[in-house]
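Mods, move this if it's the wrong board.
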Amino acid sequence: MIVLPPFPVALAALAVGYGLGSIPFGLLLTKAAGLGDVRSIGSGNIGATNVLRTGSKGLAALTVLLDLAKGAAAVLVAQKWGQTAALAAAGCAVLGHMFPVWLGFRGGKGAATSLGVLIPLAWPVALAAALVWLVAALLFRYSSLAALVAAAAGAGLAAILADKGTALLSAGIALLIIARHHENIRRLLAGTESRISLGKS
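Not the wrong board. Structure tokens:
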């Protein structure tokens, strides 16, 4: 049974999750590196795949790590207030990344941050989802397709390997990721989706 935390605790968990999740590391890193506003190139997204389009694999990798870290950090901070608070912070971290108030609620698509929240909640699920993403990305070279497959796999595995709360959270996150990728899905079906490019350093 999911036990709701006291209102001040729930509010703190929501604030921590959203606050950490809404930090736009992809945008901050590219601006700090003198590469301009990452939203003005490629898909206009602030995530690692679009950062890769600047030609910097290092910044793209750092964006992934920081987006993972902010999701994990939100959960780790809230876990001391209980499992339900941790789940609330996890969900809000993903929402913060997708809809950051600082950027007019136009953020990323949530793949890395979603994986990050799963690390402290159910690390075997997170590991399996990361491996699914890697295999799909290497096989097909579509970051969007890899994210969709990994999200679905994560939700399925969480239903088997994780507690009920984490399983429900994973299912909700998977639906959010699918919704955020609606344009990518249309391009995948039309055969016009951009592939991951690893040609530049």
